[in-house]
Automatic annotation (TrEMBL):
Pfam families: PTS_EIIA_2. Residues 5-149 form the PTS EIIA type-2 domain. It comes from Desulfonatronospira thiodismutans ASO3-1. This is PTS IIA-like nitrogen-regulatory protein PtsN. SUPFAM superfamilies: Phoshotransferase/anion transport protein.
Amino acid sequence: MHLADFLSPDQIVAGLVSRNKTEVLDELAAPLVEKHDFLDRNEVNNVLVSRENLGTTGIGDGVAIPHGKIAGLDNILISAGLSREGVDFSALDHKPVHIFFLVLAPEKSAGKHLKILAFISRLLQDPDFKDCFINAQSREELWKLINRV
């Protein structure tokens, strides 16, 4: 499995500017909605906020993997983002989140959806990957890093 199969450089936000959870979700969803015109921005945001209301996707150690299932979606879509300042994302460890991977999945894709979430979670446990991600200075650097895994 390669993350680059599910996202492209234009789906990476190297300098998130949002300061709260709802704004970050919208900022991460924006490149997906812009690229895939069949997606409705309000629907995507509502799905993501509803999922967050069930329990935070801020898994701790500066990482969040917001995700949701979208009706009519054929393939998994991913965006990635980096917040240098960090965002209060109600993470399990109560620390600011810097690294985000947003995953949108088809409604009936439980197996593949869970595999992607597990893959991203394992990847973000790698201190070398996390250090490179945090220290990347541009979208291009983040893409090169993501494209290697």
